Amino acid sequence: QGETDDATVGWLPEQRILTFTAHHVAVDGVSLTQLFTELLQLYKGDALGPPPPPVREHAAWELERIASPEGQAAERYWQGVLENAPQIRLPVDVPESEARRFAGKELCVRVPAARLRARSRELGVSPYMLLLSAFGGLLHRWSGQRELMIGIVHAGRDQRFEKTVGMFANTLPLRLRIPALFRELVADVKHKSLEVVAQDLPYEHIVQKLSGTRGPLFESMFSYERADGRSISIGEAQFAEVRLPRATSLFSFSLDVIDLGDELDLRFEYAHPRMALETAQRVRDEDRPGTTD
Q1: Distance between CA 235 and CA 258 in Å, rounded?
Q2: CA–CA distance from 141 to each of 95, 109, 186 (Å)?
């Protein structure tokens, strides 16, 4: 047990339940999958491999990159992205001054993944890029703005640290201009999402050094996480991730996609009471895969 994680064993007449909770400051989505993998290896009696590089080595590498010519070029790229950046204006039901800051709720829906994967192959993009395009189109339709800034999540680790447990995920602002055709939007999202990852800098560095005195970089967030390796059966033992409901929202409106393999969990998080339940439900239903091409 520690300040950022905790493991507990529950004893029932016919069951033993092991629960593990962790603070997001110490563990990201990739780390959860790695923890599941190692737990299963130990449960089956298999030996773990050599330990991966520690988090401190990644922190040192990150500082070196920021100071390198590559890091300086990335800074110039982000200065261009943030210049005269748009502030998204989503319609709300209660003005912000009257609403509790960071209070929120979520709406969840589970949908089959087959149609999304087929459409992604047809367009030559990943499911992540296709859903991000749909989310951008939704925000355009809802706000009426042609230019948007959306927060996206990047894994933030290279191959050396893929098995290291820690908080590597990095948030990056993605600036989009919505074209007339959805296919054009998908192509632009593919180009821009690859571009921002190639120019990866820590989000706090972008905010502190490059954003100046402007307001929040974005008010909407999109994340996509593969979790198909976190629900496994070995004999009578069941290993599965349990996600608890949230009562907070850092942004006006966000979409978290959990890829379970055959299905997708769509979690729409919204600022409440700034946005009423009925409004969030209407937006969710517009963005569900399979409702429109």
Answers
A1: 26
A2: 21, 21, 16
Could you give the CA distance from residue 182 to residue 252 in angstroms, rounded to a whole number? Answer: 24
Check: CB of residue 142 under 8 Å from CB of residue 91.
yes
Q: Which of 157, 154, 242, 249 is nearest to 197 (CA)?
A: 154
| pLDDT tens per residue, range 31-66 | 888 888 888 888 888 999 899 999 999 999 999 999
Strand, helix or coil for residue 172: strand
Q: Which amino acid is at 160?
A: R
At 13, list the tokens.
């007449």
Q: How far apart are CA 268 and CA 134, in angstroms?
A: 14
CA atoms within 13 A on the CB side of 177: 2
Cis, bond preceding 273 (omega within 30 deg of 0):
yes
Per the CB < 8 A criterion, the answer to whether 262 and 113 are in contact is yes
Greater confidence (7 vs 89) lies with 89
d(CA 170, CA 157): 9
Distance CA 193, CA 152 (A): 9
